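Morning run. Coffee first, then this:
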Amino acid sequence: MSKLLSRLYSIYASLIFVISFLLIFPFIWICIWIPGWKKYGRKINRYWAKAYFVCIFLPVKIQESEKIEKDKPYIYLANHFSYLDIAMMGLIPGDVLFVGKASIRKAPLFGYYFKNLHIAVDRDRLKSRAETLKRTDEALNSGSSVIIFPEGGIFTKNPPEMIPFKNGAFRLAKDKQIPIIPVTLSYNHLILPDDGKLLLRWRPAKMTLHEPLLPGKWDSENALKEKCFQVIQSQLDQDNSNT
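And here it is:
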């Protein structure tokens, strides 16, 4: 795709994102304000994600392990190379809360939605991290799942190679004995690279939901972390071997 076509495609995708979000925002606002309805707001979010990828003509191939049980809480951990990752993880089935950076709250309207339906963490503030752990614990106890990017953000300089994972998600999984589902987002770094240009390049996307990792099978959180890293990186290497 030429640079001009990429620019036009990027503008189109941005407009679709903004317009579609403005259309669904009143319904999300209602779900936020009615007690007990926040899960419906997140459900709207999932349908919005599906509609968005259809509207921008970007097919997403989802490979899902047959061992994933519906309506069971999981900790979904994915590689993070692109801003597109957040939208694509919105396709995860079930009631799922994102654990993301507090800076997202500054975005107009979207920040309000994220703050109220998901979990924002300021890693520089000890109090914020404690509150994040509490809200994450409450979400899992209620039967919801959570999505965490264990690299802590988009930090790698050489995608599709990941940087080492942080320990928090694995400590949580061990403490609560909640299965981890490694998620590989294979081509988002090619579709929307983190290079500051914000140019969207069309190509089919792929998301792999791997077999759940049961925390009790590993002696330590570090062993569990290494296994999760290996599963995701192996899939990245396999899918990008010819790109």
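The chain has eight helices and seven strands. Good start to the day.
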